[in-house]
Amino acid sequence: MTLLFFLFLLSLASSFSLPSLPGRKKLLDSLTYTDGGRIIRGVRDGEGLKIIDLPEWLAPQSQVESTFKVKVESSNLTSVGLLFKTLYAVRYRVLLSGVLRLANTAIQIVPSLLVRAILRSVETTASPTNLPTSALSSFFSSLSGLQLSLLLYITLSSKVLVENAFFTTVVDTSTKCRHLLNTLVFENSFSSPFSLAAPVSGAGKKASSVNATTLSLVTSDIPTVESLVSQVHTIWDAPLQVFIYTKILRSTLGNCVNKGMLVLLLSVPISTILVSLSAKIRRRSLRWRDQRYRLMGDFIENAKVNKITNAEESIVKRVEGARRREIILNLFSGGVRSLNSCVLGATTAVVLAVTLATKIREGGVLKGSDVFTAVGIFNQVRFPVLFYPMVLSSIADGLVSARRISDVITAGSDYRKVLDEEEDWFRPDKSRGFLSQDVDLVVENSFSSNNILAVVGKVGDGKSDLCKALANRVTTASYFEQDVWLPSGSLLDAVLFGREFDQTEFDRVLEISQLKEDLESGLLSLESECGEGGGSLSGGQRARVALARTLYFSSEVIIDDCFASLDSRVKMKIAEKLKASGVRGAVVTNDWEVACQADMIVQVAQTDEGVGKVLKIGKPNEFDRWAEGEDRGGGEKGKKVVSSSSSSSSSSISIATPDNNVDPEAPMVVRTDTEGLESHVNNTSLEEPGSQTLLEPKGGRRKSSRLTTPTLDEAITTKVPLETYVKYLQAVRSPGLLLLALSSYCLSNFYQVYQQSLVAKFSSGATSTQISLLTNAAICVAVAQFFRSLLTTVSGTIAAQNFHRRMIKSLSKAPMSFFDTNPSGQITNRFGKELDTIDRSLPDQMGWVLTCFLQIAFSSVAIATALTPVAIVPLSIIGVFYVKITSFFRSGARSLKVTETKTRGPINQLMAEAKRGNMVIKSLEAEGFWKERFRVAQTANIKAFYGIKRCDRFLSVRLESLANLMVFATAVLSTKVAKNAGYAGWGLSQALSITGLLNWAVRCLTETEQMITSTQRVEEIIDVEPEVDVGVLAPEHEGLLKSGWPWKGAIEFEGVNMRYTEGSPLVLRDFDLKVGGGESVGIVGRTGSGKSSVLLTLFRLMHIHSGTIKIDGVDICSVPLAVLRKVIATIPQESVIYTGTLRENIVLDEGKGEEDDELAWKALNIVSPELALKFKEQGGLAHDLGGGAGLSEGEKSLVVVSRALYARFKGAKILVLDEATAKLDEVTERRISHIVGQYFIEAGITVVAVAHRTETLKGFDKIAEMRDGEVLREKRVAA
């Protein structure tokens, strides 16, 4: 004890000297966490994570990790099994933490006994006949008050060291478990076969549903298991504490303690019921929160489509509806939690009152020493008693989470087992699959024969399924995924994908993928950022970069339609280069001309039983071009094929130039045959960027008020301005509510101190009146704590709701450039984590800060009142050191906490990317590269988290030592100047309560500073500059809508100039185009010519620099955006299906009556009677589409066309098609073209189409060719 005491004094003195002392012992450093101070200084000086040295066992890829992985993979896991193996991997640390926990429990009992001895010494001085009877009491009675005080200080100091050692060991152990499980889940992404998201049956099906929630495992389930590991010792320690404390109470007050303990035990089920009820309500609230998240995902990810379809208002209403339900449930949950707070607040005082009343009835004598010993012990024993059921509930939650994790980990082996037992090589669901012999046939005619085999068929016939089956079979082949995915990073990184750079091979793949021209022209560079999922590149650029990645150092390929996003010229060049390169494998395509470039063609279809089947394999000259309307007899879909001539229309009109090449100076040639139109379009690049590339020859990159991470980091790492707190309080919008909340906090702390003062008077003998006063005070504390908790919840909810309402309103009016330049994850995070912080965590944390500092202030006053005003002097001196230490700690803690948050981002991102790019990563054998990236990310996160915890321990040791000095000073004063044992006990109990408060207050304050920055983040959304909108009709056009505007749908672009940002080059230059009412116009042009920019200006997604755009003579800038976009129907390239019902996807909540439902059904029946029948059997318009998860691409496109047709029935006079059929097969394309022709063009609706395929332009009145933002030529075609 003495050694520890001097070591502790030395460490306390050293904490104030900033320079490190090289001669310090490792024991001293370990006990006093001096490395925490070194970390703070290093972080403050800008050294970052370099200053943090991880223990070898805690670092990723340690021997512990390797052993754990082997043990997990060598057995069939259950939830208990996974938990046992996780704990076994860190068994020595678990054992060490158990020993420390036992030692800490033994030590923390001693201060109560010493306090009793000190108080008895005071009583002995006042009354010499009051002598102790036990041996321990006799020993204590032989010591003077000063000696007892010094022994109390040494005991508390020892407790500080042991307790902090325990917490350090537990946190390190649970952290290691978290990262073990993170690594296991991440690497499991590469252990399952292709398309595990849709396995065959049995265990695979269960696993598939879990696999879809990988990120949920990382953000929810693994932290739950981590929490379980940290609480594992509470299972045995809590009952042990209750037993020991009960024995001490009985030795102090006798058997009257039994009734008090009975009351305490009766409060347990009440608290348990309230906690369970609150959790149940909270779970219902979370379901609405998840619904809100899904809707916000629709809102953010489909921002462009939302605007042009005028769906924003509908989604906003649904988001606000979900949010209202979420808030109502949160308030109910908060009310129940407030009741529980009321129970917890009153428990100790009520238990004490019952115990003391029983003692008085039994004729016992109450002494101040016994009463305050009982108060201290009751306060200690209530925590293990009341919170033990919560610990058991937490363990149950941990087991559930462990089961979810084990299901994911075992999913791969279960799936492979099912595959081995099934006849099918691949069956992603009940309706589709390919038999093993068909897969063998395809392999034989492609990989085994050194051929390129083209896979053709219609949408839904299983082409992509066949590719995944091939990827499972031919594991050496590089896989190109239809839904192109690129990881974040540069173009060079995307192509290399962790492989070594080889100039010759790199040049070869650039040549094949046609990227060389883009690089030479400056459209792209090797340093160009691909963005999130390739979002900074156009669709065609993404496809070509992914193709280059697939071909790099690979001679075997499986390409699932890389041609859908490419214009005809580029796709034909790639097909020719691909054939000449000598690669072999399978290539999916919907383009007949591309298919004819292959060595062999395989046609697939789906049988009536829903099984994918190979219909025919042969050379291209053995096939006729497939067409719509084939005979589906014989039980096989798509069995009959017809010649290409039968699908051509002799009346089709086109424009072409000599030699099938576009010549800007050549005269326009009008033809009346399909071949001419195909020649024109095939030689005109129709590839249009979905968003601007990093390096552009024209127009530049669109910019907006970007959510810049450096700005956020600066705001967090520096002192939070007072203005931020003011804005948060202003969001409550009720000064009266805030005043009531503050009053409840003050009253709660006042009555707690008042309770202690009543107990202090028991030293002269307690009466029934005093017991009644104590009970009444307990009721006052309970009521005050109830309102304190409730008002805090209500205030926080109101503030969060106001922030949410302002955010969603601002986001609905944000310009398109805002969504283009800000990652969807950043925006979504504002409505997720940041709003949740404002909603729940921030109010509670601010409440704790207020509670701690109020209690410290009240306790300081109580000490001075109970003992002597002179006590303020040592308290003030300690306060000075307290401020100095906390200021030093907070200077580095902010940066470390920000760093830890930032280092969690890459882990989640890599998890998401590994899940999303699973097939690509495995096919390119890049697992090692990605595992190394994950290891680096984990190391950074562990370092940051470890640094935070070392700093926390550094702070805890020093602040608790200061509090111990305060206890020591109070104890000495108690023995010298206290009026009696009651007042001495009051002063000592207040000093002991401050011990934990000093440390807890600083942590809460630091957390509050971190959390309050969430308001800064959401303010960024609120402050986004809205898109320009007149809001109401200009006065001269007020009667337009009443008169039926637009009357004909005539569109006129006159001298339109448009640029994306101020100072950037013009994208549209003096653009002139007239479209008569009821006319159909196709717009074509090379990449970057400005085709899509024309549509952006028509929808006013981009503001024009000069010129006018008129519809039926009315300048669209004078028309409110909602009105303008309502009269224009659109069929975009992306078939967006929203979260919600079929009605919400077609009607978009425009109408409320039966007439709207009838129009929706009419539109769907016209577009696809088969699909309408299918939906009718599944619940009609109320059928939940689930965001399109159960629909094929063709079915999604038909729903989108139904949406446009419904808009036409509701009065839309203009239809816009933006490469609407680029990703569809020819059959689906012809169906959509037929609907456009019959129900729009023939009905007199104005149609403007940016074309990608010839089918879309057949029958149009005229074609306008664009170049460099101008109409190069415009020609009306003959009928």
Automatic annotation (TrEMBL):
Residues 643-655 have a biased composition (Low complexity). The keyword Ribosomal protein does not apply. Residues 624-639 have a biased composition (Basic and acidic residues). Residues 680-694 have a biased composition (Polar residues). Residues 419-631, 1051-1279 form the ABC transporter domain. It is found in: Membrane. Pfam families: ABC_membrane (PF00664), ABC_tran (PF00005). Gene3D superfamilies: ABC transporter type 1, transmembrane domain, P-loop containing nucleotide triphosphate hydrolases. SMART domains: AAA. One of its GO terms (cellular component) is membrane. It comes from the Eukaryota. GO terms for molecular function: ABC-type transporter activity; ATP binding; ATP hydrolysis activity. PANTHER family: ATP-BINDING CASSETTE SUB-FAMILY C (PTHR24223). This is Uncharacterized protein. It comes from Triparma columacea. The lineage of its organism: Eukaryota, Sar, Stramenopiles, Ochrophyta, Bolidophyceae.
